[in-house]
Amino acid sequence: MAPQPGTTVPDHRGRTGLHLTGLDLERNPRVQVTDVELLAAGWHVLRATTFRYRGDDGEWTTLTRETYDRGNGATILLYDLARRTVLLTRQFRYPIYVNDHPDGMLIETAAGLLDDDDPVTAIRRESEEETGVRVAEVEHVFDVYMSPGSVTERLHFFAAAYDGAEREGDRGGLAEEDEEIEILEYEIDEALGMIRDGRIQDAKTIMLLQWAVLDGPFARR
C-alpha cells in the first residue's frame, strides 16, 4: 500500500511529516501523545490524535481528539481617531452561509494567515491587500485561541491608525485568490450598534471593537 501523501511522501503542497505533529510534546507531564493519524491534507490539515491524560485522581485515561490545523493568523482594527471611524471589510464566507447566516456576507476586520511571515509582516500585508491601507506602526493588542476545542489556530490581534481623508477605493482583495472584498467605513458608535443588532457577528471584529472603546483609541481616559 502506497504511503499517504503528507506522511513520508509529499502532499500536493510539498509537505511531509504531517503524521508526526504532537508526538514530541512533553510540556505537560499529565499528557502523553501515543498516536497521530493524518485524516486529510487538503489546503489545511485534519488529524486524529490519541493521547493518555492523567486526571486529578491520578488515573490515566486514553482519549482521541480531532484537530484542524490551518496555521496561525493575524487581524487588525484600522481606526481614524479624529473622525471616530473604523475600516472594516465584507466578503462571502461559505461556512457561515451553510450555518444559518442569511447571505454569508460577513463584516470583519482585515485578517489573514501568517503563512511563512511573522505576525507584524503578515498583518501589514493583509491590511494593504484587503483595504488598500499601508500601515507602518501597528499596536499589538493580544493573542487568542479562537476555537480551542478543535482548531489549533492562534490569532494575533493588532490595531493601527489610518487617514480616512486620504483613503481611496471601496474594493480590495486579490483576484488570483478569488477574493472580492468590499471596504466599509463606520463611525465607532454605529459599529458597536451593529454588534447589538446582529449585523456584525464575527468574533475577532467584536473583540477588537470592544477593545477599542474599553482600552483602545476610543476609550474614555
Question: Care to describe what's here?
Answer:
This protein is an alpha+beta fold. It is built from 4 helices and 11 strands. Strands 4, 5, 6, 7, 8, 9, 10 and 11 form an 8-stranded mixed beta sheet that branches. Helix 3 crosses helix 4 (203-214). It is globular, with a radius of gyration of 20 Å. The mean pLDDT is 94.
Features:
eight-stranded mixed sheet; 36% strand; three-stranded antiparallel sheet; 4 helices; 221 residues; alpha+beta
End-to-end separation in angstroms reads: 66 Å
Shape: globular
Helix % is: 10-25%
Number of helices: 4
Query: Which structural class is indicated by helix and strand composition?
Result: alpha+beta
Strand residue content = 35-45%
Element-by-element helix/strand order: EEEEEHEEHEEEEHH
Q: What do the pLDDT scores average to? A: 94
Q: Sheet with the most strands?
A: 8 strands, mixed
Radius of gyration: 20 Å
Number of strand segments: 11
Poorly predicted regions are: none
